[in-house]
Design brief:
The chain is α+β, with helices and mostly antiparallel strands. The protein has one domain: Gcn5-related N-acetyltransferase (GNAT) (Aminopeptidase, 3-Layer(aba) Sandwich), CATH 3.40.630. It has 4 helices and 7 strands; from the N terminus they run βααβββαβαββ. It has a 7-stranded mixed beta sheet with strand order 1-2-3-4-5-7-6, sandwiched between helices. About 25% of the residues are buried. The structure holds coenzyme A (COA). Coenzyme A (COA) binds near residues 23, 84, 86, 88 and 117.
């Protein structure tokens, strides 16, 4: 069973690992820890409980900032758990939280070549409102680093 829980200090290593593994612009453990002390940062974990042989396993997370409007920094679900509605669950949890704060708009940036991410956000009702060229640095072994365009998406709710 998947539970969405507020992230705690004990989750920092899992967040850093998930982030580094799946997204190009990731934060270090120190940056994640510092974000826990800041106002206006929302971080939740998707925990599988009980999970196969383990009693609990973090299988995804979401981090966003919020002020007058909100920005999604990262949303990752472990490969083996993708396409089971966990990404949607994490996003809905954030949107419920934002509505309670009377924030009704969410922005994000997604790499143009991130097919899964783009399909997911399209399904979740996000619309493209802009582009940032040469935004992400993609490291490809044996080749020159590649600059990838970011698409700026927004959802109003
Ligand atoms: C994007 C991501 C978070 C989606 O998480 P998920 O738990 O697999 O998503 P869900 O199961 O909730 O998917 C909901 C819908 O989104 C769409 N979708 C999700 N992944 C997709 C994929 N790989 N290809 C096409 N459509 C996809 C589908 O319409 C899906 O509904 P369906 O399974 O009934 O067809 C996940 O693929 C991921 O962690 N990717 C790596 C990190 C990343 O790129 N994050 C986004 C940028 S911040």
């Amino acid at each position: 069973m998947i539970q969405i829980k507020k992230a705690q200090k004990k989750d920092i290593s899992d967040i850093a690992l998930l982030w580094k593994d799946k997204l190009q612009a990731c934060w270090t453990k120190q940056m994640i820890e510092a974000s826990f002390k800041k106002e206006g940062i929302f971080t939740v974990m998707a925990a599988c409980e009980p999970c196969l042989e383990k009693s609990q396993e973090n299988v995804g997370f979401l981090m966003a900032s919020f002020e007058a409007e909100a920005e999604l920094y990262a949303l990752v679900v472990k490969k083996a758990y993708q396409r089971h509605g966990i990404g949607e669950l994490l996003l809905k949890n954030l949107i419920d939280f934002l509505r309670n704060k009377e924030i009704f708009s969410l922005f994000l940036e997604v790499a143009e070549d991130n097919v899964a991410g783009r399909s997911f956000y399209e399904k979740m009702g996000f619309e493209k409102i802009g582009e940032r060229s040469s935004y992400y640095l993609k490291k490809i072994e044996g080749k020159e680093d590649l600059r990838v365009k970011a698409l700026v998406l927004r959802k109003n709710f």
